[in-house]
Amino acid sequence: MVAAPRILFVSPGWPRGRLWGEMSFRFPSLSLAVVAAATPSRWETALCDEGFGPVDPAAEADVVAITAMTAQAVRAYEIADAFRSRGKTVVMGGFHASNLPEEALGHVDAVVVGEAEAVWPQLLSDFEEGRLQKVYRAAAPIDTAAIPVARRSIFDGKGYLLTNTVQTTRGCPYDCEFCSVTAFFGRKYRKRPVDAVLSELQEMRKAGSFVFFVDDNIVADRTYSLRLFGGMEGMGLKWLSHASLDLGEDPELLSAAGKSGCIGLFVGFETLDEDALRTMGKKTNQVATYVENAKAFRDNGIGILGSFVLGWDGDGPDVFEKTLRFCEDARIQAGIFPILTPYPGTKVRARLEAEGRILSSDWRDYDMEHVNFRPKGMSVEELQKGYDQLCLDFYSFGSMWKRLGLHRSLPAFGPMNFGFRSALRRKVADA
Q1: How many domains, the chain?
Q2: 3-class DSSP state for residue 348?
Q3: pLDDT of residue 93
Q4: What pTM value is reported for the model?
């Protein structure tokens, strides 16, 4: 009897001493589960997430499929080289390989550029027939109705905090200078059928009450979002996702989100500088409305994980204290403060390259925690030191006391704050 061919999906780990490498709570890669669902049934599938332990290069596999963000690329290449030295076929996809396929092909046998679902069965067929191509790229963005329901069984027994991750839309109608989403998914905002999403959510209820929508902006299409939130009302789910700050100016949609079970949203404030907002193309944000909109979120039972990008040309050494004071005054429940990172494929990288300001392309430091370019308003050392101190100050007990309070979102944001605090302390200890 001929053994079934086997695929090993690999999610590379983050280095220790980096924030994301020190986080104790981990989320699975939904993209790998969706690609697993697009895999013909005759193939056996398995997953190795290095967040829970290193991959074994001697693991049984006919095809090794790796996805990686830029900061994981070096580790992904190490894994690929180890498997190929043992005669295994390795393919790679994800944001980094899609933007730099020629670089990736120095370490893997084939690269999937962009969305994988449409080309994955063809890649496997070509492999079986001995005619694997170097690059696979879909002719057009996939019809979202054809996206298969994720095969979450590959997450079983891995120890994830939750496996109820789902995607309702792809792409973003905006085009922020620093963002890699539009470079990957495009600016067209594509939506899965609401009924298909609601059916998937009904199944998820059996696995737990918390759901994380990985959409880049779950409220970009108001009509669609109202239908989705209306269908979710009464399911008893508590959910988190990403949204633009101007949601706070739409009372009906904001109320519908809260009633459907939303307890937290990742929101890109990006900066407190109006000139920087114009430079980056963040059209949904107006600094004058920040506090009012944040209050509107909170009044509807929705906490905010705010993101503030540090190192814009208008940022000086005072940006760190200003950002901390704003977060505490506006009672932003949680926050991340990424250093501006010139990822491959982004407009900001093209601009900084043209200005001769890129200092490093060591992808390991493209983790939003390291300075890889020459800032204008301060030195490299000032930006690095200011970032490190802001993170520690924000997750101090004093700041947490000012920001959190007794709020419906506390069951999510309390552990989130302590999780970040613990990871930052471990990061310092490992330095």
Answers
A1: 2
A2: helix
A3: 95
A4: 0.91
